[in-house]
Structure formats: C-alpha cells, structure tokens
Specification:
With 408 residues, the protein is of the alpha/beta class. The protein has 16 helices and 13 strands. It folds into two domains: 206 residues, 3-Layer(aba) Sandwich (Rossmann fold); 161 residues, Response regulator (Rossmann fold), CATH 3.40.50. Helix 2 runs parallel beside helix 14, helix 6 packs across helix 8 and helix 10 crosses helix 11. The protein is globular, with a radius of gyration of 24 Å.
C-alpha cells in the first residue's frame, strides 16, 4: 500500500512539475493598435517602407521589453489607398479593442474624422494635411503640415531668388493630399510673400511631361514646387533633364529649379530618378541617413536587425513609420509610469501633455515632438535638403516657416 502511495505521489509531483514547465510566465498586458495603409497600389512607394518602419519598431519594443512585460500588438493591413477598405479595416480594429490608431492617406483620414470624434480615438496619420486638424480633437500630425512645408519652400525661393519676383508653378497630386497646401500657399502670397503663382498642375498618369514643361518655360516659370509622391516627380525630373531644363544652381536663369515637400524626395527619389534627381531641393522634418546622427544610427540598426534591404533602411518613409510607432510607444510608457490604465482616453491625455519640459525627442526628426490642446502638429521645425552627388545633404539649420502663423 505504501509502495503504491509512493508511486502515486511521484507521479503527482511529476505532473505538477510538467504543468509548471509548460505554463507560460506572466506575459503582461497586451495593448492593441492598428495601421491601415497603402503597402501596394498608389503611393505604395511611400507606404511600403512606412509599414516596415512601424512593424520593426514595435517588434523592437516587445523584444527588448521597453514596456517591461507589457507588449504592443499592432495589426497592419494593406488598403491599397482605397478609402472604403481603410474604413473596413478601421472598423475591424475597433472590434478588436484598439487603444491607438495609425492611419495613412489624407482622403481616409478626412472621411473617418467623425468616427474618430465619436469614438474618441487618438490617431496619428501618415497624412500631414492641415485640413485634418479642422473640427478635429483626436487627429495628431506627426510633423509640420504639407502647407507649412510648401510655404517653407516658397519662403526659401523668395529669399534666394536673385532678381525680381520669382515665378512659380505648383505640381500636385490629383487628390486632397495634393491639393491641400495650394490654398495656404496662395494665402501666404496674399499676405505679402512676394512670389507669383503662374500655374497649378494636377499631374495625371502620363509618362511624358514634355508638353507641360515646355508650357511652363514659355510662361517664364523659374521654380516648381511639388506636392505629391516620388514616382511622378522622378518622371518629371527625367523629362526635364532630357530637355536640358534642370537648373544646376538655385534659380539659374533660363532653367527650372525643382523643389518638393516630404513625400516627393529623399533616397526614395534618387532610387527612382537616379542622376536626374541632382539639385532637387526638398524639405521634411525627418533626418536623413546620409548624415551622421544618433537617429540615423538607430534607424540603420533597426533595419539591419530585421533584415531590411538598403533601400528601405535609408528611406525617410521608414523613419516616418518608425517615428509614429515611437510616439505611440512613448505615450503608453508615460501612462504606465503614472500608474494609469492604458486606454484610448489616457493615451489621448498623454499626447496633449507632450509639450514644454514634456516634449519628446525621438531622434528620427530634426526637432522635438510637441502637442497640446491647441497645437496638434508634432514637429514644427523643417530641414531643407538638396541632392548632391546622388544623396541629400542638409542646407542651413532647421527652421519654422514665417507665414504659417500669418495666415491663421
């Protein structure tokens, strides 16, 4: 009898030990987020590296326990730049109980604005359209708006044009994304910015810009400000190069100096346009990996850790995706540090408090991220870059456009 009891106890202890081994260690809380964007389809040349930046940074957060035992689960869906698909993705994310949402396009951000308000969902889109912030409490731009970027470029043109009032054309995407800054640039001119807007061109899918470029030259256009994505700009620059119209110095007489906002430039553009991108002037709030900095080192290390190719690793849109994930992680960390439950409400409050001594420096941007109840554009400063020798190099120091405050 004692022998049988001993065997039974041995088996029981063995079973308990095996259960203990198989039971998972305390895994902490899981905070759910969602991202819907164009990984394929229109604007995917920006969306694809952006998605990789988001994915990789959240993987790093979880693997290195930046949030302790807690983790972030961010579901990433391809919407192919289709607003209806984006809406379905968002509704599905909501059913999963997300506490933070990362959106992409201007059109879908505008279309979902009322949904965000009703559900009190904090949102950071990849769209920097200033109109996203009108009648909105829950949308936060990661960096300065397209309007601020275009105005900043216009101010640089005015300050550095050598003779007379500069004649400018706007080359824009045929969507709310492209049209967004046009009215604000026009307002800046009306407010005293001494520049003449000769024409606004909404590009199509044409593979040849010869007729357009000759028309602009016939009208005396000296500068073209682009607000679109890299691929149509690359095509335009290649056509301009073939026609011998690209200025080799800023404002060169008889030539056109091409400049552009965030999604038009960077290493993504040089990969598409090659030598035709030379002397393209570009502005964004993000760093570039061509110049040494702690942020560039961190970006390249992250991409290497997860096996990304050089094109993705050096993309400012990879940095763009990385940065929004950094901000989302930071507000979770801050809420936890204060002993608050991590909910969409507490994360929203942490975003509003991200200013003054509580600003956030992610390293991927040329200035700090600041938000408040009256300022929902994250990084206010911009950096001007120019393509030289196949890479973009900074010109001057980060700046804040003067006319953005004059047209409010």
């Amino acid at each position: 009898m004692k022998k049988n009891r001993k065997i039974f106890l041995t088996m029981l202890f063995s079973a308990v030990f095996l259960v203990a081994l198989s039971a998972p260690a305390f895994a902490g809380n899981v905070y759910k987020m969602g991202l819907s964007l164009a990984i394929t389809g229109p604007t995917s040349d920006a969306g694809n590296p952006y998605a990789k930046g988001v994915e990789d940074y959240f993987r790093l957060v979880n693997e290195t326990k930046i949030l302790g035992d807690d983790t972030i689960e961010c579901t990433i869906r391809d919407d192919q730049y289709n607003n209806d698909v984006t809406k379905r993705n968002y509704e599905d994310f909501m059913s999963q109980g997300i506490v933070f949402y990362l959106n992409y396009s201007t059109g879908s951000t505008m279309a979902l604005k009322k949904d965000f308000e009703e559900e009190k969902m904090p949102v950071i889109p990849a769209s920097f359209h200033a109109g996203n912030l009108i009648d909105s409490n829950y949308i936060f731009l990661p960096i300065a708006s397209y309007s601020a970027q275009a105005i900043g470029l216009a101010e640089y043109i005015v300050k550095n044009n050598k003779k007379g009032v500069p004649k400018v054309a706007l080359f824009i995407h045929p969507s709310a994304f492209g049209r967004g800054p046009v009215e604000d640039v026009q307002k800046a001119v009306a407010a005293g910015l001494k520049m003449e807007i000769i024409e606004v061109v909404e590009h199509g899918k044409d593979l040849d810009n010869t007729a357009m470029l000759k028309r602009l030259m016939s009208k005396g256009v000296q500068y073209v400000i682009s607000q679109t994505v890299q691929s149509p700009v690359a095509t335009m620059l290649q056509d301009a190069g073939r026609l011998g119209l690209v200025a080799t110095s800023f404002g060169e007489p008889g030539k056109i100096t091409f400049v552009g906002c965030h999604y038009t430039g960077g290493n993504d553009l040089t990969a598409l346009a090659g030598a035709s991108a030379e002397n393209f002037y570009w502005t964004t709030s993000y760093i570039v990996t061509n110049e040494p900095s702690a942020g560039a080192t961190a970006q390249l290390a992250l991409a290497k850790r997860y096996g990304r190719d050089d094109k993705a690793a050096n993309s400012h849109n990879y940095a763009n995706g990385m940065m929004v994930a950094q901000v989302a992680t930071e507000v979770v960390r801050r809420a936890k540090a204060k002993g608050k439950p991590v909910t969409k409400e507490t994360l929203y409050q942490e975003l509003l408090a991200m200013n003054g001594n509580n600003s956030f420096s992610p390293g991927t941007t040329v200035g700090p991220v600041t938000y408040s109840a009256t300022d929902k554009a994250g990084v206010d400063t911009l950096q001007l870059y120019v393509a030289k020798g196949g890479v973009f190099k900074s010109i001057g120091k980060p700046f804040i456009p003067e006319y953005t405050s004059k047209i409010k």
